[in-house]
Amino acid sequence: QEQLVESGGGLVPAGGSLRLSCATSRGTFLSGAMGWFRQAPGQEREFVAGISWSGGSTKYADSVKGRFTISRDNAKNTMYLQMNSLKIEETAVYFCAARNVPPFELVPVGAREYDSWGQGTQVTVSS
After folding, report:
1. pLDDT at residue number 85
2. How many CB atoms lie within 10 A of CB 125?
3. What is the pLDDT of residue 121?
């Protein structure tokens, strides 16, 4: 099981920005997609954004399109989520996830398709 560690969460005002990072211990040994999910109180874990191994394919939840940007730097074994124009309702625990199952350029949106997870980092958007 790959070890994933999120960072960058915290308190941010509505309309503000935050950048999350997810570092992997295996780095280039992880050959599949990576993604971000979030879970708000009383809600199911939902897909936020995903990126293929090469970075050539990305997917976003409709609710974050145009505001969030996912990227990865495989040389640094790190994935990022730039979140802009944050909304109060986006307060949630954000989880980093990774997949190491072919095809490696596939970007699933279902949590069940990812097999490695971080501990989660709290993002709180204040009024």
Report:
1. 98
2. 19
3. 97
